[in-house]
Amino acid sequence: MDSNDIQLAKQGDQQLLAKRLKENYSFLVKYVWKMSGDEQLAYDVTQETLVKAIQKISQYKGKSSFSSWLIQIATHTYLDIKRKQKRAFTYEQSETARLKREEMTDSIPAEWYDVQQALLQLEDQYRIPIVLKHYYGYDYEEIAQMTKVKTGTVKSRVHYGLKQLREELCDHEG
């Protein structure tokens, strides 16, 4: 989204904003799905992210790309939803999520399945920066801005999370 587009969207050009959100829709769904391992949750978070982006377009300053700004909103929306779900989580929901993950992994090679499962076992604070760094290629500073933590903390979380992944995958092989 160039600076002219931003100004027009901030001034109420709803068609332009809708176009930009539509262009980023599948990108956001895929990001949240990779982060959460839950397809339905990915769609729910994406929808809520788009609503928040519409409401907060005036807060977009253009310091990062529009897609990075959307990822920041999606990440915080996901974490908020997880906190709320944690309070209301039932066995039935857990079983449904497990079945969805199995369904999602049917067409994935076994090695990737192991990595994906190990990644999903990590706490969000480690999994999110790893996905942003190693799947999407964001640098540490961008991830720090998206997750609202210090750059050193992001580096530490990526390092520690990768260490946990390696340990889990090595244990899984043995």
From TrEMBL:
Domain RNA polymerase sigma factor 70 region 4 type per the UniProt entry, residue ranges: 115-165
Domain RNA polymerase sigma-70 region, first and last residues per copy: 22-87
Keywords linked to the UniProt accession: Sigma factor, Transcription, Transcription regulation
Family annotation (Pfam families): Sigma70_r2, Sigma70_r4_2
Biological process terms in GO annotation: DNA-templated transcription initiation
PANTHER family per record: RNA POLYMERASE ECF-TYPE SIGMA FACTO (PTHR43133), RNA POLYMERASE SIGMA FACTOR SIGV (PTHR43133:SF60)
Gene3D superfamilies per record: 1.10.1740.10, Winged helix-like DNA-binding domain superfamily/Winged helix DNA-binding domain (1.10.10.10)
Organism: Halobacillus halophilus (strain ATCC 35676 / DSM 2266 / JCM 20832 / KCTC 3685 / LMG 17431 / NBRC 102448 / NCIMB 2269) (Sporosarcina halophila)
Protein family according to the UniProt entry: Belongs to the sigma-70 factor family. ECF subfamily.
Lipid biosynthesis among keywords: no
Gene Ontology MF, one: DNA binding
Name of the protein in its database record: RNA polymerase sigma factor SigY
SUPFAM superfamilies named among the record's database cross-references: Sigma2 domain of RNA polymerase sigma factors (SSF88946), Sigma3 and sigma4 domains of RNA polymerase sigma factors (SSF88659)
Signal peptide start and end residues: none
